[in-house]
Amino acid sequence: APLLNTGAGFSEMLARSGLLSPLAVQMARTGEQTGSLDTMMNKVADYLEGEADAKAHQVAVATGVLALLLAACVVAYIVISFYVGMFSSISQEGAQ
Predict the structure, then answer these.
(1) Beta strands in 11-71 (DSSP E)
(2) Residues 6+ apart with CB under 8 A from 14
(3) From first to last of its 96 residues, what are the pLDDT tens digits of the chain?
Protein backbone atom coordinates (compact mmCIF):
# COMPACT_ATOMS: atom_id res chain seq x y z
CA ALA A 1 0.00 0.00 0.00
CA PRO A 2 2.83 2.52 0.63
CA LEU A 3 3.83 2.27 -3.03
CA LEU A 4 0.31 3.10 -4.16
CA ASN A 5 0.22 6.09 -1.80
CA THR A 6 3.38 7.49 -3.43
CA GLY A 7 1.81 7.32 -6.88
CA ALA A 8 3.40 4.10 -8.10
CA GLY A 9 1.21 2.06 -10.39
CA PHE A 10 -0.42 -1.25 -9.64
CA SER A 11 1.95 -3.10 -11.97
CA GLU A 12 4.95 -1.48 -10.26
CA MET A 13 3.67 -2.76 -6.93
CA LEU A 14 3.29 -6.25 -8.41
CA ALA A 15 6.79 -6.11 -9.88
CA ARG A 16 8.37 -5.10 -6.57
CA SER A 17 6.45 -7.71 -4.61
CA GLY A 18 8.08 -10.54 -6.55
CA LEU A 19 4.92 -12.63 -6.25
CA LEU A 20 4.23 -12.87 -9.97
CA SER A 21 6.35 -13.82 -12.94
CA PRO A 22 7.72 -11.06 -15.18
CA LEU A 23 5.23 -12.10 -17.87
CA ALA A 24 2.28 -11.65 -15.49
CA VAL A 25 3.63 -8.27 -14.37
CA GLN A 26 4.02 -7.18 -18.01
CA MET A 27 0.45 -8.27 -18.73
CA ALA A 28 -0.75 -6.21 -15.75
CA ARG A 29 1.31 -3.24 -16.96
CA THR A 30 -0.24 -3.52 -20.42
CA GLY A 31 -3.72 -3.64 -18.92
CA GLU A 32 -2.94 -0.63 -16.77
CA GLN A 33 -1.67 1.37 -19.75
CA THR A 34 -4.58 0.46 -22.02
CA GLY A 35 -7.28 0.91 -19.40
CA SER A 36 -8.29 -2.73 -19.47
CA LEU A 37 -6.71 -3.85 -16.22
CA ASP A 38 -9.66 -6.07 -15.29
CA THR A 39 -9.47 -7.95 -18.60
CA MET A 40 -5.72 -8.38 -18.37
CA MET A 41 -5.89 -9.55 -14.75
CA ASN A 42 -8.43 -12.17 -15.84
CA LYS A 43 -5.93 -13.26 -18.50
CA VAL A 44 -3.18 -13.35 -15.86
CA ALA A 45 -5.43 -15.52 -13.69
CA ASP A 46 -6.08 -17.87 -16.62
CA TYR A 47 -2.35 -18.03 -17.36
CA LEU A 48 -1.47 -18.79 -13.73
CA GLU A 49 -4.23 -21.39 -13.53
CA GLY A 50 -2.78 -23.10 -16.60
CA GLU A 51 0.68 -23.03 -15.03
CA ALA A 52 -0.68 -24.54 -11.81
CA ASP A 53 -2.51 -27.26 -13.75
CA ALA A 54 0.68 -28.10 -15.65
CA LYS A 55 2.67 -28.36 -12.41
CA ALA A 56 -0.03 -30.55 -10.83
CA HIS A 57 0.07 -32.82 -13.87
CA GLN A 58 3.87 -33.07 -13.65
CA VAL A 59 3.67 -33.99 -9.96
CA ALA A 60 1.01 -36.62 -10.68
CA VAL A 61 3.11 -38.18 -13.45
CA ALA A 62 6.26 -38.14 -11.30
CA THR A 63 4.37 -39.74 -8.40
CA GLY A 64 3.10 -42.50 -10.68
CA VAL A 65 6.58 -43.19 -12.03
CA LEU A 66 8.05 -43.30 -8.53
CA ALA A 67 5.32 -45.68 -7.35
CA LEU A 68 5.99 -47.94 -10.33
CA LEU A 69 9.74 -47.93 -9.62
CA LEU A 70 9.12 -48.74 -5.97
CA ALA A 71 6.84 -51.63 -6.90
CA ALA A 72 9.45 -52.92 -9.37
CA CYS A 73 12.14 -52.80 -6.67
CA VAL A 74 9.93 -54.74 -4.24
CA VAL A 75 9.17 -57.38 -6.86
CA ALA A 76 12.86 -57.62 -7.80
CA TYR A 77 13.81 -58.05 -4.13
CA ILE A 78 11.25 -60.84 -3.70
CA VAL A 79 12.37 -62.65 -6.87
CA ILE A 80 16.07 -62.32 -6.02
CA SER A 81 15.44 -63.51 -2.44
CA PHE A 82 13.56 -66.53 -3.76
CA TYR A 83 16.30 -67.54 -6.18
CA VAL A 84 19.11 -66.91 -3.70
CA GLY A 85 17.34 -69.14 -1.17
CA MET A 86 16.70 -71.81 -3.78
CA PHE A 87 20.29 -71.85 -5.06
CA SER A 88 21.79 -71.81 -1.58
CA SER A 89 19.71 -74.86 -0.61
CA ILE A 90 20.76 -76.63 -3.82
CA SER A 91 24.44 -75.85 -3.19
CA GLN A 92 24.16 -77.07 0.42
CA GLU A 93 22.62 -80.36 -0.74
CA GLY A 94 25.37 -80.77 -3.31
CA ALA A 95 28.08 -80.19 -0.70
CA GLN A 96 26.79 -83.03 1.49
Answers:
(1) none
(2) 20, 24, 25, 28
(3) 566 677 778 888 889 888 889 999 999 999 999 999 999 999 999 999 999 999 999 999 999 999 999 999 999 999 999 999 888 877 777 666
The SS3 of residue 42 is helix
End-to-end CA distance of the chain: 87
DSSP state of 7: T
CB atoms within 10 A of CB 60: 10
What is each CA distance from 42 to 15, 31, 84, 95, in whole angstroms? 17, 10, 62, 79
| Contact assessment for residue 70 and residue 62, using Cβ atoms and an 8 Å cutoff | no
Dist. CA 52–CA 21, nearest whole Å: 13
CA angle 75, 76, 79 (to 5 degrees): 85
